[in-house]
Amino acid sequence: MRLSRYFLPVLKETPAEAQIASHRLMLRAGMIRQASAGIYSWLPLGYRVLKRIEEIVHQEQQRAGAIPVLMPTIQSADLWRESGRYDAYGPEMLRIRDRHDRDMLYGPTNEEQITEMFRAYAGSYRDVPKLLYHIQWKFRDEIRPRFGVMRGREFLMKDGYSFDLDRATATISYYKMLVSYLRTFERLGLKAVPMQAESGPIGGDLAHEFLVLAETGESGVFLDRRIAELTLGDRDIDYDNHEQLEGIFREWTSGYARTDDTHDEAVFHSEVAEGDRVMARGIEVGHIFYFGTKYSEALGATVAGPDGSRAPVHGGSYGIGVSRLVGALIEANHDDKGIIWPESVTPFDVGLVNLKQGDAETDKACEDVLDELSFRGLSVLYDDRDERAGAKFATAELIGLPWRITVGPRGLKAGTVELACRRTGESEELSAEAAVNKLSEIYAGL
RNA sequence: CGGAGCGUAGCGCAGCCUGGUAGCGCGUCGGUUUUGGGUACCGAAGGUCGCGAGUUCGAAUCUCGCCGCUCCGACCA
After folding, report:
1. Which nucleotide is nearest to A15 (CA to C1')?
2. How far apart are CA A397 and CA A425, in angstroms?
3. Cβ proximity of A66 and A180 under 8 Å
């Protein structure tokens, strides 16, 4: 993509309303534009990141056996009356009325819809287990939206739902999702720790929130340092191997890790050695919980067992804040100059900077690099603007592409271009061919 | 919802107290400069001063109402 033809409205000055780094940087880098309180338009650059995150979430969900669907944003109030949540949900739910005076709502979540869908088609134990999910916009009329996309009223969420015959098999579904979340966040280049959450109506230990550690997080977190150091790495995961799943579950959830909602100072001190105690802040990016038969009973979603008797299915619900992740990623990856995207979600793989736009030789060299990178399947943002070098570098640093190739007449004389890494700030002079090869290898590894 | 503010050009702000019909910086556009880290020069465009009413000869400025937005608290992916 040529920058001169793109739509990248970067701001030199920081908009006054932005309080935290991710919000500031998203506005400055031309990723989002506020439409109204807590509601944002996604500009081209932001949209690309959102889509890449979404794609990774999709891949990891399906790898874990979850099946993608898409349910509408607008729902009928009837189902919610049936589950009893129409009144219970409160003013956070945006209620609307259609031309026939029917009560509708903009979905804050989809338990009712998915359960209705399941009950309509599923009849026997042979129809379970099932894991269905979608990635869809939600609306929750937050009292006070803030921090840009971190707490918007409209937000993009992956919400998945499991249907199982009993608690034992529902637990397996829960493990699958927990592992898939660990994989997802790891691929995103994020350190997200599952923390014991309020257990809700069922009790037990099957409720976890995933928190990204960041100073600007809204939750206080208390954890054993060793959990934050765990990693799946390139472990071979078999989602049909229940023992392996349970092992990973135990590995990540046995140690102390709680938010200030569930924190117990005495337990923290008795379970965690002083040197391992971490007290920090975190951003909630995921939430998984088992809720038993809460919705299946209310909505009559039952399946017949092998003996022919019908029983309500056991459900769980699994959320990932996709749009919030964009903010969380920036909170975790930025410096005073701008964003630093991990390779896995960067809006463009490589930035290409032409230091002497209009100089035939330099332009040609840039075009060649652009063609070659594109041929290798890499996305490139080519800064072909008629701008001073400083302005180009500043833009590149602000929008934070992980790699940058700089081409200028001085280097060309020596037959080299500059390849710079945004994260380390290091750069090297090498031939255009070598630079392209190197980038190609880096991205092939993802 | 309780508390505190703000709304003037795309962005950041001044002007308001003490009414006289709008200004600064950045950005944008045109031209010069041909640039190796936002840094040069010349010129230009761009504003219903959030909306409505009132007071006044006259309102960005004073009064009232409304709307929008932000910040601090209780809730959430």
Report:
1. B11
2. 10
3. yes
Quickly give A13 CA vs B16 C1' distance in Å.
Answer: 26
Name the nucleotide with the smallest C1'–CA separation from A321: B77
Q: What's the CA gap between A175 and A178, in Å, rounded?
A: 5
- What pLDDT is recorded for position A416? 92
Position A264 pLDDT exceeds 70: yes
Report the share of chain A in percent with pLDDT over 90: 63
Minimum-distance nucleotide, CA of A395 to C1': B38
Query: Which of A330, A244, A242, A223 is CA-nearest to residue A285?
Result: A330
Distance in Å, residue A16 CA to nucleotide B59 C1':
28
CA atom of A11 to C1′ atom of B20, Å: 37
The pair of three-digit structure tokens given for residue A313, joined into one six-digit string: 């299915």
- Rounded CA gap, A49 and A53, in Å? 6
- Residue pair A184/A249 in contact by the 8 Å Cβ criterion: no
- Edge to edge, the sheet with strand A103-106 lists A74-76, A103-106, A94-97
Q: How far is the CA of A42 from the C1' of B67 (A)?
A: 25
Complex ipTM value: 0.84
Kindly state the average pLDDT of the residues A390-405.
92
Beta bridge partners of A428: A419
Nearest nucleotide to A143 (CA to C1') is B75
Query: Chain B: nucleotides under 7 Å from a protein CB?
Result: 1-2, 10-13, 25-27, 33-39, 68-77
> Tokens 């014991």 appear where?
A196
Q: What's the pLDDT score for residue A146?
A: 84
